[in-house]
Write the structure tokens for this entry.
Amino acid sequence: MPPGSGRTQAQEYEDILGLTRAAEAAGFDSVWVSEHHGAADGYLPSLTVLQAAMAAVTKRVVLGQGVVLGPFQHPLRFAEDCAVLDNISGGRLLVGLAPGWREEEFRSFGMPIQERVGRNAELVKICRLAWAGGRFDFEGKYYRYQQVAVTPPPAHPLTILMGGFVEKAAERAGRLGDGFLASRNDLRYFGALVRAFDRGAEAAGKDPQRMPIGFLQNAWVSKDGEVPDHVVAGGWHQYGTYATWRIPTDTPEAPYKLGPVDRETVVTNMAHGTPDQVVYKMRSWLEAHGRRDLHIVFRLHYPGMTRAQAQPAVELFASEVIPQLKRLA
């Protein structure tokens, strides 16, 4: 929730659950959440808690984590929470893990940022052991366990997507994970990440063609093709906040501050327009990667927007965009 928006986090969570129900009813395959900590706008810090509520109000949609910040999780506790969540949902959880990048979060957790990759990798390994059933041992650089058990087991074998921005991270995802999830990049760069992921998977003796890949994509769809001002404002808060965090702001030394709305930046990074225009803008992505097990996570609900503002786009996207995208794939 952008500072000064006048809405409460309770209202936001209520709207999220309403939009989750609406997305399932409209025909979306999955609904996704992502994680940050200590943000001035209250960015969601606890994915499994909210996803349990989402599971309780739905029956079918996959619940995707895009992504959990692995270094900040206690491995056994996270494995337990995911197992419970998977049982609540009837086997609909899709796990996503990434090492994080925002220095303020590592400072808050009292953790050297240099440990992020190693801690995330060990979390992946521990979760696999924990969800396999039975007691297990683990000896790593950061975590050590002897004859521990995680109960209950998840309702189904949990897939772990690993997130990353660079080829090294994508290759690591191929080696350690079950799939790869990228932030929105240009198509050529995403292709390079996928090739790195494939190399990592092949080096580990896996068939990458059988492994899921995906990316996050800002979007907006309307009958007239227009992008309303409240969508631009929300999109700028989402896009601009990441940029200001890199300066950094939203720290003890530098309070959160977002610059004036840059409409051009927002719409340039957004697949927007009428249903046919959105499909056209995504066509090349589907032609390049649509034969894979491809997850495209379309953002249609931006910071500060109400359910009433987002739901028409969710329903229009489901009825007139998704069928065309699936035909292209």
The chain has a mean pLDDT of 97.
